[in-house]
Amino acid sequence: MEIKTRKKKNIIILDLYGRVDIDSAIFVEVVGECIRNGYSDFICNFEEVEFIEYMGVSAILIAYKEVVNNNGRMKFINIPAHLKAVFAVSGVERVVDIYLTEDAALKSFEDDRIIEKIQKMQLRRRFKRLPIDIKIQVRSKYDRKATCIKTDLLDLSGVGAYIYGCREFKLGDDVVIVLSLPKRTKPLELDARVVWLSDKEIQQHIHPGMGVEFFNFSSSDQQELVNFIDKNLSRIKED
Which pLDDT tens digit goes with each residue over 161-220? Predict the structure, then answer.
């Protein structure tokens, strides 16, 4: 098996050649290296694949799972007629999106982003936002030296928050928010990603600041947060 790697619009395109069989662990290695280098979206081109056996299918699915676990997407294109039966019997075609052409697959990533944006907006509207001013700790998920101690949480919802007074992070950084809630024996620790930074020229009154979205969020932690928000919103209304 031979793999040639290309890139278009920050999407990795893997052109596959030869036989996809028991010796195709290189496919998993190539995908893993791309993920480590910061790429998450992949197109696999099977046009020049001569043969695929079920052990090869297993290697492909291992790589696919690795992509999904890293919040990425993998799509297939140019499936020759002699491979379609293998993908059908093995169930691959029910798991992975398959397109006739590279252009169609590239456009599908753009469509996905539009849909994701709409879904995020709908999700935000489902959750109430609580204006609040409490001290929290924010630290990098991967670098413990990058930490904001006793920074201000100004806005909180069940899916994200706005944090004021912290300059340590940039867009896309993964952080851990340490938040103390009443009647909790230890602080709530929430994984979050920086998705927005304040502009000093436009938002002087809330600069420096950053908006974060929560991820790896258990339903129990989210419910606890929602209950805290609802309780405090009720108190605001009563006041």
Answer: 999 999 889 988 999 999 998 878 899 999 999 988 888 877 778 889 999 999 887 888
**From CA 211, how far away is CA 216, in angstroms rounded?**
17
Contacts within 8 Å (CB) and 24+ apart, 188-195: 188/221, 188/224, 188/225, 190/214, 190/217, 190/221, 190/225, 191/141, 191/215, 191/216, 191/217, 192/160, 192/161, 194/169, 194/170, 195/160, 195/171
DSSP, collapsed to helix, strand or coil, labels residue 58 as: helix
Same domain, 111 and 172: no
In this structure, are 154 and 97 located in the same domain? no
Range of the domain at 225: 127-238
The amino acid that residue 120 corresponds to is K
pLDDT value at 124 more than 70: no
8 A C-beta contact, residue 166 and residue 201: no
Omega within 30 of 0 (cis) for the link into 208: yes
Side chain identity at residue 206, one-letter code:
I
Q: Which of 123, 151, 177 is the last residue of a domain?
A: 123
Spatial separation of the C-alpha atoms in residues 167 and 148, rounded to whole Å: 8
Q: Give the pLDDT score at 233.
A: 87
Q: How far apart are CA 110 and CA 183, in angstroms?
A: 45
pTM comes to 0.51
My answer on whether 87 and 179 are in the same domain is no
Dmax (CA) for the chain in angstroms is 72
CATH code, domain with 155: 2.40.10.220
Tokens 């993908």 correspond to 87
Do 113 and 131 share a structural domain? no
